[in-house]
Amino acid sequence: MIKARKNAIKSIVAAVALLSLQGPTFAARLTFAPQTKDAPPVLSTTLPIARLGRLTIPGGVISIDSNAVEIAAVPEGLFDSRMVLSGVVVTASAAGNRGVVRGQIYFFGGPWLNYLSLKPNFEIVERADGTLVSGQIVEGSEKDLTVRAADGSLTTVPFTEIINVESPRAQNFLVPFAGRSAAASVISMGEASEIRFTSAAGKSSKGLPGARALALKRPINAPLGDERGISKGTVGAYLAANLFWTVAPAIATPLVFGRSLAGPINRIKQANALSFPGYTGLP
Length: 283
Fold this sequence. Notes:
- 24% of the residues lie in helices and 37% in strands.
- It has 283 residues and is an alpha+beta fold.
- The chain folds into two domains: 25-115 and 162-227; 230-283.
- An eight-stranded antiparallel β-barrel has the order 1-2-3-4-5-6-12-13. A five-stranded antiparallel β-sheet has the order 10-9-8-7-11, with no helix packed on it.
- A hairpin with a 4-residue loop joins strand 5 (82-95) and strand 6.
- The longest helix is centred in the C-terminal third of the chain and has 44 residues, at 232-275.
- It is elongated.
């Protein structure tokens, strides 16, 4: 019996050691169709993600369906996964000889959007013909982006004309995959295990400093168990109310009780003085 237990323990230890040597085995299906003259690129996959720019994504998963993007996370202090960011694949291309799909995603929705970046006042959409459309991106769909210029005019730019978006809400991505090589006009199919992101803020389509370079500093973590965030005004109001209800009783109690008890105490002293001549109230 003892010998059998020892053999079982040895088998378990050996299996655990073998699994640790094998490393991660996660792989997800990836399909990709390059952009055509009339249609934007099509990319579909689901991959784990730990960070997006400065924003950490606990328990993160990114799902790309055609070119619609959603990121789900498990906020700290909670146990269920929920959608925190949404966006769209603006550009994508494949390098078949290296097994890589790279492109750009623009995020415009989700309760964590302001943690990725506050709403920028100035963004640049770069067209394939070299022209620039600058202003504020006010709307996005699965086919185009709409930019509002400083004079209030709106310009809708189809993805088929866009080669780069310069914005803190735009992220360049790279997905290595193993499988059939991607040619210029065929759908590539393979397996991917990771997605890598770099910020597109302040960068032109050639990777050079753009018209608005933004400094990226420390990582950002969403508040504990909170998807929408707490504004500074809300925090200040809470602290002010807490201070008021802490200090007010300390000020009001002596005033209220001091006035209401002064008369009865004096009458008690007078009665004691009449009943007990020489009584001073001291023990």
